[in-house]
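Quick question, first post here. What does this chain look like in 3D?
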Amino acid sequence: MAKKETTRTSKPNVGTLYNLGSAGWGSGVLFAAVRLGVFDILESAPKTTGELAKALKIQKVWAEKLLLALLGLGLVTEAKGDYANSELAAAFLVKGKAAYQGDLMMYFHDMWTRFGEMSHVISNGEPGPRERAENERRSLEEKWVSERAWVLAMHNIAMSGQAEALCKAVDLKEAISLVDVGGGSGTYAVWLARKFPQLRVEVLDSAAIVAIAEEIIEQAGMDNQVTVRAGDFLNDDYGKQNSAVLFSGVLHGFEEKRIARLLKKAYQSLAPGGVVIIQEMLAVRQPHGGLASPFPALFGLNMMSGAAYTAEQVSSWLTAANFTDVLVQPLKGCYWFDHVIVGRKPS
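> Answer (accepted):
Ran it through. Tokens below.
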């Protein structure tokens, strides 16, 4: 009698839980190093623990602990007692470099309190008591600094390769005007205007946010092609006869009813044949189960409204808003917004 074959499955590894449970430790080390300016100091020349301690004005024992942790995280290298930035840190964590991500790291730091009270958030659908208390203690200036950090974090994301990927995914050679709704830092507007020189772009967002966008647009030397308009994009119109409307990272922050409103306003603002462009993080389920990436689902827990939506949901909303020729395109190599969805207003 033939021996019955058995299917072998891998044994659960408790180390996976340990890594998940302690993931915040590594984040804390990263945030501390960014805030202290460690990577800026190491960029000029490798440093010993003593030299770094002197530069940071801290005890040598803490410089040793910090550098050892950063070495374990792959953020620094060590040779004969000298520590230097790893390729990863040199590319993304040194102030002044084009792809700097330090503002985004500080934005992640600001999210710590909410995730620390996640059981309360899930149970009550509202921020926890510690987060509310922190917000009440913040002065108007501190709140402004936090909002500015958020806008700059979105700029960091765009400069990490996200804006370049968006430009490659869309064809706006025949477009004349584009409205970047909830355009934040204005970075996508700048990149699209550079890629398509005939295009005139307007960034529509709140007064506080477009003030920051103006700085970035002027620094890029694109203020002759990209303008800003302060307004409430939920209620204000988007203009008339536009060639394109862009929603980058906007829809996930709203529930379906408000998304339908936004898409209706976009449709009304477009000229016949115009396109709506949606750049989003989407929840992608794998055929065998699970998610292609946990990131959208995890980020969704941070939002008091909205969610991580699927491509099917977004496509159905576009169809309901009378858009046609809906095209879903994955953005390879993009960690934050992983898809672009385009719909067209019939000619």
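DSSP finds 16 helices and nine strands in the chain.
The beta strands are 76-79, 82-85, 177-181, 200-205, 226-230, 242-248, 270-280, 324-330, 339-344.
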